[in-house]
Structures are given as C-alpha cells and as structure tokens.
C-alpha cells in the first residue's frame, strides 16, 4: 500500500515531467532520435524518484521497479535512490542504504550510489555524512552523481561559465580528487546537453580547461554506452573525435559493461558500444576488467577510486593493441 505521505513527498521531491522537458529543450536537438531516447532515460529516472517517495517500504518499491523494462530499470533504480535519500535526509531512517545492500536490489548498487549523489546536490552539505554511501570503493560514484546534477540542472553556471565546486566537507578528503570525480559526472551530462551528437559534445569539452578533458571524456564514455540514443556509426564518429582521450572513453564504456553484466541487462546498444570503444563484447569487457580490483589499497580514499579507474583504462587500452 502506498505511503499516505506519498503525495506530499512527491510534491516536495519529484521534478515534474514538464519542468524536466523544459530543461532538456535547451540542449542540442540536431539528432531527434537521440533526443527522444535521452528524454526516455531521464523520465525513467524521474519515475523511479516518484515510485520511491510514494512507497511505504522497500519491498513494495522493489516490486514496482521490477515492472520497468530491463533496458531502463537501472535508471529507475538510480531515481529510487534519489527519492529515498531525500526521505532519509529528513528522518532518522536509512532506506536508501537498505535498498543498495538489499538482496533483491543490490545488483543495481552502482547506479543507486550515483543516485544518492544526485540527491546530495539538493541537500545541505552538513547532512551528507549520514547519507553518504558506505562501500569503500564505489561510494565515490556519489560525487559523480553530484557533478551530473549540477551540470544538467544548473547548466549556465557549471557548463557555460564552467564553475568548479571546491566546497566539499573536510571528511571527504582531497578536494582535487573530488573535483575530478565530479567532472566525470559533468561529462555524462554533456552527452545529454550535446544531444548525443559527437561533434557538439567534443566542442563542449574543448571549451573547458585542458586538465579537465580526460575526466569529462570518461563521463561521455559512460553516457553513450548506458543512455545511448545513437547508432554504431555515431559511436565510430565519437571514437574519432575523442582522439587522445580514447582510453577515457573506453574506461567509461567498460564501467557500464560491469553494470550491464551485473544486472543481466545487456542489449544491442551496449553490445555495439562495447565493440566500438573496448574492442570486445559486454561480457568479455566485464571479465577483462576484473583484474582492476586486484591488490587495490583498502583505505577507502578517493585516490584509490581514481587509481581503480586508471587501471580499467590501462587494461582495456592494452587489450586493443
């Protein structure tokens, strides 16, 4: 049974489809098919937020999310984590954490951690410590989600004027690392902002300071593989315009193969992307990067997370030669 507080929570926390479409209409529209697919992805995420805030408990929520088509289910789970984090920020509860580690839902843990970060973008930073994910390595994906939100919904400041957020809580550690991880999320947003058009995306990245390009391109690699909206010929074009940052595109793509394998949701688009950007199938790429976790420090630092990402790029690049 839905929560009696659901309508109030929805009014507080769920962006209206109309407001989201208004934001997206300011993005590049030269590829109508890509624009439509990226809108579909976004609406499934918003739908996940709505389901979460209206639900009474996580079992009810998981049953609802199971009805979402596999292609979009990860985005719905990401949205669910947004909604539950918002609820947890105003209560002593921990529904977002419970969903992330739950036996029926933990296969979507990577996308849900990103969702926590999307929610943090609207929550005062003094409350972050209670809400921040607990996985020693993957928790830093929340900062990626934070960067995505800022670029997507505050484009004039974070994309057009290229503002860099430096005000992270001290307990999170090295702020330069956090800025890099947030740029990965910003890069994901650039795929949406560029309307899935390789040339437009490359031009956007080219306008940023050069030291930010690598992290922005890795975000693009995630978005083009996971959110998609384009044909293999467009992927080939993106691969060409990425130039020296192809290893970072491969990195982003490889991270998505882990998600698709873990959730058993590989599809024609993700398979094509894996072939173009990693030179292997989704399953082969996922198996290839298993070694990236070997002998990593267990300190839970953002530096270790960045080292893990570097290893993935190195492994996939070496496998192509």
Describe this protein's structure:
The chain has 321 residues and is mainly α. It has one domain (6-320). The chain contains 18 helices and no strands. Helix 13 runs antiparallel to helix 16 (268-278) and helix 15 (246-262) packs antiparallel against helix 16 (268-278). The longest helix is centred in the first third of the chain and has 23 residues, at 32-54. The termini are far apart. The model has no long low-confidence stretch (mean pLDDT 96).
Computed Rg? 18 Å
Question: What would the average pLDDT be, to the nearest integer?
Answer: 96
Q: Total helix count?
A: 18
Q: Please give the alpha-carbon distance between the first and last residues.
A: 55 Å
Tell me the total number of β-strands. 0
Element-by-element helix/strand order: HHHHHHHHHHHHHHHHHH
Residue windows where pLDDT falls under 50 for at least 5 positions: none
Q: SS-based structural class? A: mainly alpha
The total domain count is 1
Helix percentage:
55-70%
Shape: globular
Describe the main β-sheet briefly: none
Tell me the strand percentage band: under 5%
Secondary structure elements and pairings:
Blueprint: H1 6-13, H2 17-24, H3 32-54, H4 58-65, H5 70-89, H6 95-101, H7 109-120, H8 128-131, H9 141-153, H10 155-160, H11 175-193, H12 198-206, H13 213-226, H14 232-242, H15 246-262, H16 268-278, H17 282-288, H18 302-320
């Amino acid at each position: 049974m839905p929560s009696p507080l659901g309508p109030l929570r929805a009014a507080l926390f769920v962006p209206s489809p109309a407001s989201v479409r208004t934001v997206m209409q300011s993005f590049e529209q030269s590829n109508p098919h890509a624009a439509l697919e990226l809108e579909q992805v976004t609406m499934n995420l918003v739908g996940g937020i709505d389901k979460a805030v209206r639900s009474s408990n996580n079992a009810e929520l998981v049953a609802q999310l199971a009805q979402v088509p596999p292609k979009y289910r990860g985005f719905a789970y990401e949205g669910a984590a947004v909604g539950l984090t918002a609820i947890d920020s105003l209560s002593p509860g921990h529904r977002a954490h419970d969903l992330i580690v739950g036996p029926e839902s933990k296969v979507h843990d990577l996308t849900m951690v990103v969702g926590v970060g999307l929610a943090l973008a609207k929550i005062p930073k003094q409350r972050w410590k209670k809400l921040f994910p607990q996985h020693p390595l993957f928790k830093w994906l929340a900062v990626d989600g934070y960067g995505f939100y800022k670029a997507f919904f505050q484009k004039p400041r974070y994309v057009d004027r290229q503002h860099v957020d430096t005000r992270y809580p001290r307990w999170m550690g090295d702020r330069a690392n956090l800025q890099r991880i947030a740029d990965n999320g910003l890069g994901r947003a650039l795929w949406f902002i560029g309307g899935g058009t390789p040339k437009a995306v490359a031009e956007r990245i080219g306008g940023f300071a050069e030291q930010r390009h690598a992290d922005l391109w890795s975000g693009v690699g995630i978005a083009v593989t996971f959110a998609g909206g384009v044909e293999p010929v467009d992927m080939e074009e993106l691969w060409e315009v990425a130039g020296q940052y192809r290893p970072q595109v491969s990195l982003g793509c490889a991270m998505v193969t882990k998600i698709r394998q873990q959730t058993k949701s590989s599809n024609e688009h993700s398979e094509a992307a894996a072939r173009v950007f990693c030179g292997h199938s989704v399953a082969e790429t996922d198996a290839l990067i298993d070694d990236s976790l070997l002998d990593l420090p267990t300190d839970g630092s953002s530096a270790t997370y960045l080292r893990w990402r570097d290893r993935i790029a190195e492994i996939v690049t070496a496998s192509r030669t």
